[in-house]
């Protein structure tokens, strides 16, 4: 999730754990602790694919954060004695640190909660920025600064509201999963890999991607749709055309669970993460090989291409689609990239 959300979550958690000992300084410390795991973005692993894959790695692991919280609590008490006992202080620090990756795990990106074990958790029920989750935390933390007699209670209310919304996002995901399973059952697509994620800043309109060899199918479904049938649009997924795959491409494929699109763009071979973004707005696109002067393909360290700009004209269409207008699905895609749905195939 974004830094504002993580800071608000850390502050609310700290306020709740502190109880009657809560103060503005406690909220500030909680906000700082809540953003601490994301400092790994400052680390340079040498190339954009490694930076992407290794983000939310060791700094988001409970195997790292738990002992680190113990060390931090011990140092805090030694260097700056507080009104908290060691157990409460450790619980406050650990809760602020660990709720950060737990929340991240509900997004589509993937969070290595059990690093160094090769396990990535991505529930994919909430977008990386969602005001309906963040605003209750911000409002209640702000209110606690005004009415200081009820700081812990107000922080608890904010956490309760946000947690209920997070729980709702999982319910909404299950509803969409049921729709997809029902539609694909008894078709050639029944056993194909499926990816489902909410569209930006909501949990009502959802994006569905189905892999089918050199093709992938993309569709939108809203919880407000009267017709539950998803209009899938066929798109060219391509394949890696060279005999050998660069190590970094294999890393990207593993990280995305093979949800990758392959293209030749001019004299470059590219691969794009299909999970993050929607329609033609797919921000994680990398060059893995280039055509040299001798006409041979050569691999080098991957280079990330500039993300496409969002077209303002698509925003009203996206809002109407969220409200259940199923006549505008194709309008959200670029005409050259989105052929008409083939209903007999899906």
Order of helices and strands: HHHHHHHEEEEHEEEEH
Which of globular, elongated, flat, extended, rod-shaped describes the shape?
A: globular
Strand-pairing-aware structural class: alpha+beta
Structural Rg: 23 Å
Looking across the biggest beta sheet, what order are the strands in? Answer: 1-2-3-4
How many beta-strand segments?
8
Terminal Cα span: 33 Å
Number of helices: 9
As a percent range, the share of strand residues is: 15-25%
As residue ranges, the low-confidence spans are: 334-346
Describe the structure.
The chain has 346 residues and is of the alpha+beta class. The chain folds into two domains: 3-168, no CATH class; 186-332, no CATH class. It contains nine helices and eight strands. It has helices spanning 3-18, 24-35, 48-54, 62-79, 86-104, 131-146, 151-184, 247-255, 314-322, and strands at residues 194-198, 205-212, 215-222, 233-236, 260-265, 268-273, 285-291, 297-304. Strands 1-2-3-4 form a four-stranded antiparallel sheet, with helices on one face. A hairpin with a 2-residue loop joins strand 5 and strand 6. Helix 1 (3-18) runs antiparallel to helix 5 (86-104) and helix 2 crosses helix 5 (86-104). The longest helix is centred in the middle third of the chain and has 34 residues, at 151-184. Mean pLDDT is 90; it is low at 334-346. Pfam families: YdjM. Keywords: Hydrolase, Membrane, Transmembrane, Transmembrane helix. InterPro entries: Transcription_regulator, YdjM-like. One of its GO terms (molecular function) is hydrolase activity. The chain crosses the membrane at residues 58-77, 89-109, 121-147, 154-176.
């Amino acid at each position: 999730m974004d830094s504002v959300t993580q800071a608000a979550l850390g502050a609310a958690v700290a306020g709740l754990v502190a109880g009657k000992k809560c103060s503005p300084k406690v909220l500030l410390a909680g906000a700082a602790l809540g953003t601490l795991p994301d400092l790994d973005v400052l680390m340079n692993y040498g190339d954009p694919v490694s930076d992407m894959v290794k983000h939310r790695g060791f700094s988001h692991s409970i195997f790292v954060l738990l002992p680190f919280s113990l060390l931090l609590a011990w140092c805090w008490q030694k260097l700056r004695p507080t009104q908290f006992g060691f157990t409460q202080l450790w619980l406050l620090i650990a809760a602020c640190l660990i709720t950060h990756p737990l929340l991240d795990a509900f997004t589509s990106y993937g969070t290595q909660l059990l690093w160094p074990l090769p396990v990535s958790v991505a529930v994919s029920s909430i977008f990386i920025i969602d005001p309906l989750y963040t605003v209750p935390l911000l409002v209640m933390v702000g209110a606690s600064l005004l009415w200081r007699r009820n700081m812990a209670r107000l922080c608890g209310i904010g956490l309760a509201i946000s947690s209920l919304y997070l729980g709702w996002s999982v319910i909404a995901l299950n509803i969409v999963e049921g729709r997809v399973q029902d539609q694909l059952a008894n078709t050639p697509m029944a056993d194909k890999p499926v990816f489902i994620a909410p569209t930006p800043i909501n949990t009502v309109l959802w994006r569905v991607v189905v892999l089918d060899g050199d093709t992938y199918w993309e569709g939108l479904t809203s919880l407000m749709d009267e017709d539950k049938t998803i209009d899938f649009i066929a798109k060219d997924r391509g394949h890696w055309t060279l005999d050998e795959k660069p190590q970094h491409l294999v890393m990207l494929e593993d990280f995305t669970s093979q949800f990758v699109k392959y293209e030749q763009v001019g004299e470059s071979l590219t691969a794009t993460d299909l999970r993050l973004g929607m329609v033609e707005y797919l921000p994680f696109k990398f060059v893995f090989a280039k055509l040299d002067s001798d006409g041979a393909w050569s691999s080098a360290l991957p280079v990330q291409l500039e993300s496409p700009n969002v077209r303002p004209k698509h925003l009203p269409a996206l809002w109407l689609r969220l409200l259940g207008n199923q006549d505008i699905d194709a309008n959200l895609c670029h005409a050259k990239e989105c052929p008409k749905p083939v209903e007999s195939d899906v």
